[in-house]
Specification:
The chain is mainly alpha-helical and 333 residues long. Helix content is 54%, strand content 6%. The protein contains 15 helices and seven strands. The strands form three sheets. The chain has a three-stranded mixed beta sheet with strand order 1-3-2. A hairpin with a 2-residue loop joins strand 4 and strand 5. Helix 3 packs across helix 4 and helix 13 packs antiparallel against helix 14. It is elongated and about 85 Å long.
């Protein structure tokens, strides 16, 4: 008979714990030892890659962790991408979950939050800039610090292969200023209802900054193309306001919609047939009662029969039917 202690242990708990322990926290720090390792998802992995690019430029333990992330990032991109890109950010997501599972890449929640903390990254970047400035001005008291830094640098083993976009930006210093690439301003205020709110700057997370590069090319906007042409928008840290981006790329959505949907006048024939067959023949003559939902469904069906595709909002159809020359029809919402 099992002892009371053994009876309190849930069945299968050891297997679950062992399964989680198989994963390796790729951004692990020694102070975290009681958290369970969780498997990385595609979204979390891409966030680690974006932050690792920034940590690569800063000395310290986070740079070592970033190098480990970039080694796996380069390995996946090399085996799963047909073009010259060397980052998972440019690769399709289909094979990434399998790659993460094979290498048992995981994370501790505390380690993960620490590594992607924007405030820590910004603070470390400022501190690195100050140290660089002090090292160039002072020759006396900082000589020992400089010599120790040189010694530690020379004794450090060679770094693994870096991302191409990161290496290029670090050599050329071609990181854009922290302003909106569209309106060329830092702050923008937008109205939401009766309140005015500050529209925060958003940093690009894809190579082409979503649809921004495509929109700029179609508009032949050299004020943007001169900064992003042939470059990785993540590496050069392209920023924009959400409202600016939405307004700048809106015509792409409108163009797609215009190509997909027939023009309004093309529905005139369908609407006339709809009124004759449904409104006049069934609602008025036969005194049948249809809900607005069914009327909308019948109209959509007739549109597809004539055009092969297309749709029409039910509220617009209801407004249009109310202007129909009869007082004998009613609608049930």
């Amino acid at each position: 008979m099992a002892s009371p202690v053994e009876q309190r242990i849930p069945v299968g708990s050891d297997k679950k714990r062992q399964k989680n322990e198989d994963y390796i926290c790729i951004t692990h720090i020694s102070s975290v030892d009681k958290e369970r390792t969780q498997p990385l998802t595609v979204v979390r992995w891409k966030k680690l890659v974006v932050c690792a690019r920034k940590w690569l430029e800063i000395d310290g333990i986070d740079r070592t962790l970033a190098e480990a992330v970039c080694v796996h990032d380069d390995e996946f991109a090399k085996n799963n991408n047909d073009d010259d890109s060397t980052s998972t950010l440019a690769c399709p997501d289909e094979s990434l979950p399998g790659f993460l599972e094979v290498h048992k890449l995981g994370f501790h929640p505390t380690c993960y939050r620490r590594f992607i903390d924007k405030k820590r990254i910004a603070s470390a970047e400022k501190l690195a800039e100050k140290r660089g400035a002090c090292g160039g001005d002072n020759n006396g008291s900082d000589s020992d610090h400089e010599s120790s830094t040189t010694t530690s640098t020379t004794s450090r083993p060679p770094s693994p292969k870096r991302l191409r976009s990161t290496t290029k930006s670090s050599r050329s210093g071609n990181v854009l200023p922290a302003i909106c690439i569209i309106c060329k301003r830092v702050d923008r205020f937008v109205k939401e209802g009766h309140k005015t709110k500050k529209d925060k700057l958003v940093q690009a997370e894809t190579i082409n900054a979503g649809s921004l590069v495509k929109a700029a090319e179609l508009k032949m906007d050299e004020s943007i193309l001169k900064d992003v042409r042939g470059k990785d928008c993540v590496a050069i840290e392209v920023r924009y306001h959400k409202r600016c981006y939405k307004e700048y790329t809106r015509f792409l959505v409108a163009t797609t919609s215009d190509e997909r949907m027939p023009k309004a006048w093309e529905y005139a024939t369908v609407y006339t047939e709809f009124c004759d067959k449904i409104i006049q023949a069934q609602l008025i003559k036969k005194q049948e009662i249809f809900r607005m939902k069914k009327l909308s469904s019948l109209f959509q069906k007739m549109i597809r029969e004539h055009h092969g595709h297309g749709s029409y909002r039910s509220d617009l159809l209801k407004k249009r039917l109310r202007s129909y020359r009869t007082s004998q029809q009613g609608f049930i919402n």
